Amino acid sequence: MRFGLVMHEVGQGLRRNISMVISVILVTFISLTFVGAAALLQLQITEMKGYWYDRAQVAVYLCTEVSNGGNCMLSAATEEQIDAVRAQLESDTLAPYIDRFEFENRDQAYENFQRQFQGNPVADLVEPEFLNETFWVNLKDPNQAAILVESLSTMAGVENVEDQRAYLDGIFDLLNAASITAVGIAALMLVAAVLLIATTIRLSAFSRRRELGIMRLVGASNGFIQTPFVLEGIVAALIGSALASATVVGLVHFFVQGYLAPSLAATTSLVGVPEALMVVPIIIGLGVLLAGISASFAIRRYLRI
Predict the structure, then answer these.
(1) Is the pTM of this model over 0.70?
(2) Which of 86, 169, 242, 296 has a CA positioned 20 to 30 A from the CA of residue 224?
């Protein structure tokens, strides 16, 4: 009977303030959608880092006839120098860090360049002797690239040793900035949702002030009086959270996996529905928690007044 009475009061409160309740649902929905998007973006960044960093190579560029940097003096690396670099890569010093390496000669570099820049006028301007012969090295642990850079940079015939992860850092910095922006927007929207829930609860309490006075006169406890109002806020936030969760899962399923994945599967790893489902409890839990705290604070303050 007591539970039925509480739920009856909750239903009455939701009906009396339907426009405010809809506002709470919408604001909660939008803010938690941003929260879910930010969480998924962080998961995607982590996924991409693992995918690309594991595939990032260390490039050992050898001197060409036009090189004037590193250990080059406008002369191409000799066979003896190339063999020395290969021997160093196979040595007991570096071999434990290397998963595999391959050598790209000048003709292969020219062929790859022509394929990459096919249709571009620059392809007609480049001659094979302009391109570096290169050792492409895959490490067992990409974080140990500095060991190769230090060991090979000073060898004769080596123009430059580059860790390709440096090219990826800028991309990930940009993605992290987008993630932080999404978190900032989500935080502002959550503040708006909390304030709106508090306002809705106080208006609901004000519209039922006569009923609350009667309940106090008959000896109803503060906990019994507060419970329907707290549940009103939680129900509204729960609906918004459910909509946000469905939106996040739908975006991953239909847009990320249905549209992006077929064209990007060969170049990167994308988050899927399992990762989206991992975010759902966070969205719902955050929505219910904030609504419960906000509504409880608002009604307690009202009852003190």
Answers:
(1) no
(2) 242
- φ/ψ of 95, rounded to 5, equals -55, -40
Question: How many helices (H) and strands (E) would you count in the chain?
Answer: 10, 4
Q: Which residues pair with 102 in a beta bridge?
A: 136
pLDDT of residue 19: 73
Q: How many CB atoms lie within 10 A of CB 65?
A: 12
Question: Tens of pLDDT along 104-160?
Answer: 888 888 888 888 777 777 777 777 778 888 999 988 887 888 888 888 988 888 888
Sign of CA dihedral 176, 180, 182, 186: positive
Whose tokens are 């975010």? That residue is 279
* Contact by Cβ (8 Å): 153, 72: no
Condensed to tens digits (0 to 9), the pLDDT of residues 14-47 reads: 666 677 778 778 888 988 898 888 888 888 887 7
| Residue 2, helix vs strand vs coil | helix
For position 218, what pLDDT does the model report?
62
Q: Where are the beta strands (DSSP E) in 150-276?
A: 158-163
